[in-house]
From TrEMBL:
This is GDSL esterase/lipase 5-like. The keyword Signal applies. Pfam families: Lipase_GDSL. The lineage of its organism: Eukaryota, Viridiplantae, Streptophyta, Embryophyta, Tracheophyta. Residues 1-26 form the signal peptide. Keywords: Signal. GO terms for molecular function: lipase activity.
Length: 376
């Protein structure tokens, strides 16, 4: 426990030293050769969606995955994804027959005909979550606004508006807002939990409405998973003897319930707002309880890490703790490292998001229906 504590508590110190860039060193544009009704894919969020944006900011290795063995299964090199291979957003792109969406901050010329990935590992809805170490949601929104302005300049207001309304917006964020206080040797008192969740949801609501105002109409959301049962969270309190961290699970449930209410409210208030809200909480709990049902051999321990459950986030040996163990076959595992899933688990998650129906997907749409609906 001391090793995990020293590793994570050092983040507060690093955050005073590091500076996040305010723009990418890239050129913006649109591929005019794409079909008229092409559907772009814009991605916002945290490490469940980050394709490597954190490679290009000054930050700590605790929120980077650009070193071995990350990416070992598919890419054969560490591109910046917190997985042995792909993320759920990569599979969604495959199913939609578009290329993997590259990180927005990747240097070079960007053609945003297929969309953009603004996600940043460690990011939260609240700006104070890993402040100074990540690209927070407010900054991700500013990047998207820059892309939208560029599209309007290149295509004209009317065509850009049509493009942005055809696009699919997938947002996976909030987990770090609830984990960070516990990982930073703090807590969220029971008396303050509802108020804290309310603040996260209020900020999230403002973000969604900003995207809608710019032109977004088709929104995909991912409910927060069973964070208190992640390998890293299960070892925080030795007195729990490896049990899930109930305080965090309570926050997850409160958040997911509040998010559902918010989306129903927005659907009622915003005439063209459409949403798909994937129940990741139920899916992850099922994977952990019944791994063999889904083709896995191990549902609790991480493939890469050290300590009980592989809960010390040392995968790759580039963080404060250098020692780590690596399993022989990540396909046998639900968890790749102390916080994240394997390529295979992400694929199963993406399949449900793509084809899912109620109750696994809340709302009248799944990701497949969003990409197949190209009007206007």
């Amino acid at each position: 426990m001391a090793t995990l504590t020293s590793l994570l508590y050092s983040l507060a110190f690093y955050a005073t030293l590091l500076i996040i860039p305010t723009a990418c060193t890239c050129s913006l544009g649109y591929d005019l050769g794409k079909p008229k009704n092409h559907v772009p894919f814009f991605i916002f969020g945290d490490s469940f969606s980050d394709a490597g944006n954190n490679n290009y900011i000054n930050t700590s290795t605790i929120v980077q995955a650009n070193y071995w063995p990350y990416g070992e299964t598919l890419f054969q090199y560490p591109g910046g994804r917190f997985s042995d291979g792909r993320l759920s957003v990569d599979f969604i792109a495959e199913y939609a027959n578009i290329p993997f969406i590259p990180p927005f901050l990747h240097p070079g010329v960007h053609r945003f005909s297929d969309g953009a990935n603004f996600a940043s590992s460690g990011a939260g809805v609240l700006v104070e979550t890993y402040r100074g170490l990540v690209i927070n949601l407010k900054t991700q929104l500013s990047y998207f606004k820059k892309v939208a302005r560029g599209l309007k300049q290149e295509l004209g207001d009317d065509e850009a508006k049509k493009l942005l309304s055809r696009a699919v917006y997938l947002i996976s964020i909030g987990s770090n807002d609830y984990m960070f206080p516990f990982l930073a040797n703090s807590t969220i008192p029971a008396s303050s939990q509802t108020q804290y969740v309310g603040r996260v949801i209020a900020n999230f609501s403002s973000f969604i409405q900003e995207i809608y105002k710019i032109g977004g109409r088709k929104f995909g959301f991912i409910r927060i998973g069973t964070l208190g049962c992640l390998p890293a969270l299960r070892i925080i309190k030795p007195e729990n003897k490896g049990s899930c961290l109930e305080e965090v699970l309570t926050l997850c449930k409160l958040h997911n319930k509040a998010l559902s209410k918010l989306l129903i409210k927005l659907e009622r208030e915003l005439a063209e707002f459409k949403y798909s809200n994937y129940d990741f909480y139920t899916f992850l709990s099922q994977l952990m309880k019944y791994p063999s049902k889904y083709g896995f051999k191990e549902g609790e321990n991480a493939c890469c890490g050290t300590g009980r459950f592989g809960g010390v986030p040392s995968c790759g040996g580039r963080r404060a703790v250098k020692e780590y163990q690596l399993c022989d076959d990540p396909n046998d595992y639900v968890f790749w490292d102390s916080f994240h899933l394997t390529d295979r688990a992400y694929q199963q998650m993406a399949e449900q998001m793509w084809n899912g129906t109620s109750p696994m997907v809340e709302g009248n749409y799944n990701m497949k229906s969003f990409f197949e609906s190209v009007a206007p």
